[in-house]
Amino acid sequence: MDHLSTFQPPDLSDQRVLRVVAGLRPCRRGGLRLEPEPVGSKVVVHNYGHGGCGITLSMGTAIAAADLVDQCSSSSDPVAVLGAGIVGLTTARELALRGRRVRIYASKIGHETLSMLAGALFLPVGIDLEHPDIGKQRFRSILHTSKASLQKLDPLRFGVENLTVFEPAYAHDDERYFDNGTIDQPVLHDRLPIPGPPRCGHSFETLFIHTPMMLSALIEDLNDLDVQIVEQSFRDTEDLAKLDESVLINCTALGSRRLFHDQSIYPARGVLVHLEPQQLGYAIHDGFKYMFPRKDALILGGVFDENVWDETPDEQIAQDILTHHRRFFAV
Ligand SMILES: Cc1cc2nc3c(=O)[nH]c(=O)nc-3n(C[C@H](O)[C@H](O)[C@H](O)COP(=O)(O)OP(=O)(O)OC[C@H]3O[C@@H](n4cnc5c(N)ncnc54)[C@H](O)[C@@H]3O)c2cc1C
Question: Closest Cα partner for 84 from 64, 65, 112?
Fold first, then answer.
């Protein structure tokens, strides 16, 4: 049966393009690393390896890391959080809410970090789905906690909402995205109710996080909780040894490769085209070719280029992304 499209098409004309951006997803063979390690006279609790789903996991890994800190130190010990992307900020907030004295050290802070680039959709993608290092059960529990915590945040201040995501039938999602109980199984449509040529596909509902709003709200909360954020770059563990705090939480993402000699870390470059914001009320997910309606920009993805360290926005890739999405909606 034919259904009329109930959603507006995006305007993908050249005049609407704001910028092209690129960033490196902090991936890790083995998946998340969440464990304490003695380093010299300090204890380092690692919290990195979030790959293509760090916004999705951040609130859950913050709680898991704070639990580890509670287990391996006394509640009066001050703690240092290394890194001020989404993972460092959520971890620092969780620790401060538990009454810990917290200071953050990072070379880049909040909106200057990679975390600013993400859309972000709540979906466990771009990570080793076998989770050999933490195990599937622990991963699922972190994912559940993360979703529940995101749902408890003030949606208007943190920019968290429910969103319908449409996928053409040929976009073959890994069924493990949905086998963890955090997102309902996709619903099949004979004809997707979106603009463009008639096509079958599926849809699912998930959370969408407007990352610039989330980062702003986290920094506001940290200010209110008296957490100091210090701009500082560390070259090696000798630099870390000079910190006053004896408990450190490592949220340096790709930075952990050099700082903690973890060779299993690798980047997966993403390139995005930002257009003027358009409040469409739906997202398209076609593998890493996606369209997200963030409040500050309509975001078109993308690529997942493993082991590419070059963060320069690539104009040819940007053109390919635009062409793909224009064809998708062309009638
Ligand atoms: C194009 C793209 C799209 C994405 N889409 C999504 C999505 O839809 N959903 C989702 O959940 N995720 C998405 N992601 C993934 C998500 O953005 C990342 O997993 C997440 O931002 C990682 O956060 P982080 O805090 O670990 O790292 P970062 O944001 O990179 O922060 C690392 C911090 O460590 C600091 N640091 C590093 N080294 C040092 C050092 N030596 N000294 C001092 N400080 C240091 C940095 O300055 C920074 O403060 C996307 C990523 C990209 C690139």
Answer: 112
Residue ranges around ligand 1 (CB below 6 Å): 23, 25-26, 48, 50-56, 82-88, 106-108, 113-115, 117-121, 233-234, 251-253, 255, 259, 270, 272, 302
Q: Pocket of ligand 1, candidates 20, 24, 90, 114: which has the most ligand atoms within 8 Å of its Cβ, to mutate?
A: 114
Percent above pLDDT 70 for the chain:
98
If DSSP codes are grouped into helix, strand and coil, which group holds residue 241? Answer: helix
Ligand 1: nearest atom to the Cα of 25 = 53
Q: How far is CA 169 from CA 190, 246, 289, in A?
A: 10, 52, 14
pLDDT, one tens digit per residue, over 28-70 is 999 999 999 999 999 999 999 999 999 999 999 999 999 999 9
Radius of gyration over every alpha carbon of the chain, rounded to an integer in angstroms:
20
Domain positions in the chain are 14-329
pLDDT of 2 higher than 70: no
What H or E segment, with its residue span, contains residue 27?
Answer: strand 17-28
Read off φ and ψ for residue 262, nearest 5 degrees: -95, 100
**Which CATH class, in words, describes the domain spanning 14-329?**
alpha beta
Q: How far is CA 160 from CA 63, 165, 206, 211, in A?
A: 19, 15, 10, 9
**C-alpha 196 to ligand 1 mean position (Å):** 34
Q: Can you tell me which atom of ligand 1 is nearest the CA of 114?
A: 29
Question: What is the predicted pLDDT for the residue at 286?
Answer: 86
Q: Record the pTM.
A: 0.97
User: How far, in Å, from the CA of 62 to the mean position of ligand 1?
Assistant: 14
Q: Is 57 helix (H, G, I), strand (E, B) or coil?
A: helix
